[in-house]
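> forwarded from #structure-qc
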């Protein structure tokens, strides 16, 4: 761990920033198998929030591996570090009074719990943490495998891809997600609406104009 470092307080407190932006900062953490529909839901959710003039930004699993995490592979240790970094970045977005939307398989419960704990721990100078909304996009592995838009399950079955979640590596489903989307015969609109309704019910979103 780095030493001889000092936390520098921002010019505005989080409350002042949220008042200025007229919204709360938080993270929406979508988790589920590959081909469960996480990215599709995240894209539409981001679009809907932006349409309501709500500051939101989507952090997508593949996109992040093109840059921030391009040095990581898919071993358990690398997956753990992948999620650790994303948790830190998502918290920065949330702390800026934006809504971070993450779309990652994030197969291990302990890693998702760590991301939640990171958000719930107050930033220095703040008296409270940040909301963390876990969204489980739930499909049976056989359904995800039938969809397989990238051909990844096929490659995993052939042994081309090692340590593939749902085939040769485990997926630990969330026990108590804030939102549980059973995304088998559900329309995209209904899936996104489940998340928006939850956010509205908690007062996380400003009222519609």
């Amino acid at each position: 761990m780095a030493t001889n470092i000092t936390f520098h307080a921002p010019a505005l407190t989080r409350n002042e920033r949220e008042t200025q932006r007229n919204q709360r900062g938080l993270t929406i953490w979508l988790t589920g198998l590959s081909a469960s529909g996480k990215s599709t839901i995240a894209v539409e959710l981001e679009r809907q929030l932006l349409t309501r003039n709500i500051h939101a930004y989507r952090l997508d699993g593949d996109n992040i591996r093109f840059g921030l995490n391009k040095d990581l592979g898919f071993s358990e240790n690398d997956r753990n570090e992948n999620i650790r970094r994303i948790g830190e970045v998502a918290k920065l977005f949330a702390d800026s009074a934006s809504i971070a939307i993450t779309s990652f398989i994030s197969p291990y419960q302990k890693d998702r719990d760590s991301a939640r704990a990171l958000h719930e721990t107050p930033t220095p100078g703040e008296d409270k943490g940040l909301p963390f909304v876990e969204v489980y996009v739930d499909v049976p592995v056989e359904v995800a495998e039938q969809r397989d838009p990238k051909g990844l399950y096929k490659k995993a079955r052939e042994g081309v891809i090692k340590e593939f979640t749902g085939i040769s590596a485990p997926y630990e489903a969330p026990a108590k997600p804030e939102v549980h989307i059973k995304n088998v015969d559900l329309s995209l609109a209904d899936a996104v609406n489940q998340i928006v309704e939850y956010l509205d019910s908690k007062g996380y979103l400003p009222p519609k104009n």
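QC bot note: The beta strands are 26-31, 56-60, 99-103, 132-138, 179-182. The radius of gyration is 18 Å.
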